[in-house]
Amino acid sequence: MSLLIITVGGTIDKVYFDASSEYEVGEPTVPHVYQGALVTLDYELLPLMRKDSLEMTESDRVLIRETCEQVEQDKILITHGTDTMADTAEALAGLEGKTIVLTGAMAPARFRETDAVFNIGVATGAVQALPPGVYIAMNGQIFPAGQVRKNREERRFEAV
Question: Which residues carry out catalysis (predicted)?
Answer without folding.
Answer: 11
